[in-house]
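SAMPLE LOG
Freezer: B-3
Tube label: C17
Construct: single chain, 204 aa
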Amino acid sequence: MYLYRMRSTRTAIPLVSSLLAVSVPRAARAVGPVDFELGAKAGGGTNIAGGPSDLLGFGLGGRGGVSAFNFYGGVDLMHYFGSSVTPAAGETISASAWMAGVDLGYSFKIAILTIRPQLGTGDLFVSSSSSLTACRYCQITIPTHGSSSGHNLYFEPGVTALVPLGIYFAGLDANWFILPHIVDESGDKPQTAFTLHGQLGVHF
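STRUCTURE (predicted):
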């Protein structure tokens, strides 16, 4: 009886090990390839139609996301330094913006190049100031030497191209930046711009 139990145990151990060796790769294949991306961005945007002071201009930021089964989802953060203009002597108008949102896209490959059409959406937080008594270029009328700020919903459809460099990647994204609702001197109507960024990061 004792020998029989010992033989059964010795037989069961290799059998369980074989089953685990087969089942683990199958489970991994069932989950599918998952890629994490973390990168820095630098670039800028054209002047949003309507005001003399560019809300965008040069910007720095970063993004992070997850890609699985070619689908991508991530978060995006950018600070656009904007600009300052002097439409008349002693009068200065300045503006800058923070952009925070999410990106959704789908990737496909051409040789080593990854092409990802995507759509971003989120909040564009605009800060503006003016020495004018009534700044018609700002989001609201402000007093002399005053400032204002406001949140604006944005949409950013575009395309990203990435090249792998080992565990790193380099890329470029081009986008159409849309503000459906912003108040300025041209009235409450949609405003648009074009944005372009270079990217450098790591994926794992």
